[in-house]
């Protein structure tokens, strides 16, 4: 991965999207003094079958903030789109472009925007919408005339995004050695306790560790046999 940058912004659909793999890389970056901020399109309020959205949303927001803090991220913003039915379109692009103008990142991170995770494992419409809109908004943010209302709000164009890095891609091009961040990534995922307890009967510790270590080792096979987080990098 390129390392000549100072600020990154990660834009994803749901609480936990960054914790299923990507957070290990984020821990490595914040250790090196880089600033990373999170923007989430939703509060993940439709994510737990046994918990109604009005109670689920605030809880998952708290878990996401705790989870971000474990890997050195203190800025977490929510765009308040509706979980499960996020619509790709100008409204979503504008909200993400506004965030890019606010945080002025050189690197933007998002999650797999393609229909599948590779093979026949179908992706969710929220990930597809947010991933695509983020790739698009990296350009929108630099154009004064696409969303002129943002300039009126004091958000000047930011044409400084140099790369959009897509996590969870089935065609990764770059990777980060995740060794130093893996332990915190496990703790970061464990902060989504309500979600994990509803998801599996397994011991949460075992669940998180087995899953993240497995992902990192599998990814590492392509990248020098060290635990890794991989991205598909779109230079701009
Ligand atoms: Zn998700």
From TrEMBL:
Keyword flag Zinc: yes
Keyword entries, A-Z: Zinc
InterPro entries: GlcNAc_PI_deacetylase-related (IPR003737), LmbE-like_dom_sf (IPR024078)
UniProt key word Zinc: yes
PANTHER family to which the protein is assigned, alphabetical: LMBE FAMILY PROTEIN (PTHR12993:SF28), N-ACETYLGLUCOSAMINYL-PHOSPHATIDYLINOSITOL DE-N-ACETYLASE-RELATED (PTHR12993)
Protein name as catalogued: GlcNAc-PI de-N-acetylase
Organism annotation: Streptomyces variabilis
Lineage: Bacteria, Bacillati, Actinomycetota, Actinomycetes, Kitasatosporales
């Amino acid at each position: 991965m390129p390392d000549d940058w100072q600020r990154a912004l990660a834009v994803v659909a749901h609480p936990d999207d960054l914790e299923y793999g990507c957070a290990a890389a984020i821990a490595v970056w914040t250790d090196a003094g880089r600033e990373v901020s999170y923007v989430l399109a939703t509060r993940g309020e439709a994510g737990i079958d046994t918990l109604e959205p009005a109670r689920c949303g605030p809880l998952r927001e708290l878990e996401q903030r705790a989870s971000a803090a474990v890997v050195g991220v203190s800025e977490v913003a929510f765009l308040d789109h509706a979980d499960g039915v996020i619509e790709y379109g100008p409204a979503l692009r504008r909200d993400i472009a506004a965030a890019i103008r606010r945080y002025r990142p050189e690197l933007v991170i998002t999650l797999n925007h393609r229909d599948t995770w590779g093979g026949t494992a179908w992706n969710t419409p929220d990930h597809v919408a947010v991933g695509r809109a983020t790739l698009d908004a990296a350009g929108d943010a630099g154009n004064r005339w696409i969303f002129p209302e943002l300039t009126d709000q004091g958000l000047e164009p930011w044409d400084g995004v140099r790369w959009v890095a897509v996590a969870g891609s089935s065609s990764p091009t770059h990777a980060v050695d995740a060794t130093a961040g893996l332990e915190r990534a496990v703790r970061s995922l464990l902060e989504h306790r309500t979600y994990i307890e509803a998801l599996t009967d397994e011991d949460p510790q075992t669940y998180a560790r087995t899953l993240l270590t497995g992902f990192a080792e599998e990814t590492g096979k392509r990248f020098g046999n060290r635990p890794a987080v991989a991205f598909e990098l779109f230079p701009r």
